[in-house]
Each structure stands twice: as C-alpha cells, then as structure tokens.
Design brief:
A hairpin with a 6-residue loop joins strand 2 and strand 3. It is flat, with a radius of gyration of 21 Å. The chain is an alpha+beta fold. The chain has a five-stranded mixed barrel.
Length: 107
C-alpha cells in the first residue's frame, strides 16, 4: 500500500526535530458553489532540522512518532531565504527614526 504524500509550506519550525506544515486545498461552498481555500496543518518529523519557515516541502505518512506526529519530511522542494530580524534591531531602528523626526521638528 502506497503512503499518502502531500506538498505544503512550513508554518512553524521552533520545536526540535519537528515542523508544522500547512497544506492548502479548495472546498466548494455548499450554497454559493464558489471554491474556498482551506488549510490543514500537519506536525511533521524533521530529523535534521533542515526545514525553515516558508519552505515548500514534500511530506509522507509514517507510523506515529509522538502524540501528534504522523508525518515525516521527505524532501525540501523549494528553499526560501528569510531575513533574520531581531526585536532589538526593530527597537533601535524605531529609536533612530524617532530621533530623526524630533530633529526635523526643531528646525
């Protein structure tokens, strides 16, 4: 019996050896007959911690690894480069832009 495979996007990668993958699908509306985009979330086992948020991945059904993990990462289809921004950087930029604004108002 072949195992089911899905492609989705990594939504969360904070946990060790686990990622949350969102798989989008269309559900027809019962009344209006228009397709609505729905999303299913799967907790996936990622042994090497190689997937990051935003990556397109291929996942496959597997035996239960933990209470919620029933899928495993097969491959990363498309890797996304996400800029690392720290909260301290945002605060310092806001402080700098606030200082610039006060200097302009004094002139």
């Amino acid at each position: 019996m072949a195992r089911r495979q899905r492609t989705g996007t990594v939504l969360k990668d904070k946990n060790d050896k686990s990622v949350t993958v969102g798989v989008s699908w269309l559900q027809p509306d019962r009344i209006y007959k228009k397709a609505r985009r729905m999303q299913s979330k799967f907790v996936v086992h990622d042994e090497q911690n190689s997937a990051t948020v935003g990556d397109r991945v291929l996942i496959e059904e597997a035996r239960p690894t933990s209470k919620t993990k029933r899928w495993r990462l097969v491959s990363i289809i498309e890797k996304v480069d996400v800029a690392e921004v720290q909260p301290a950087d945002l605060v310092s930029e806001a402080a700098l832009s606030g200082a610039d604004a006060s200097e302009e108002s004094e002139d």
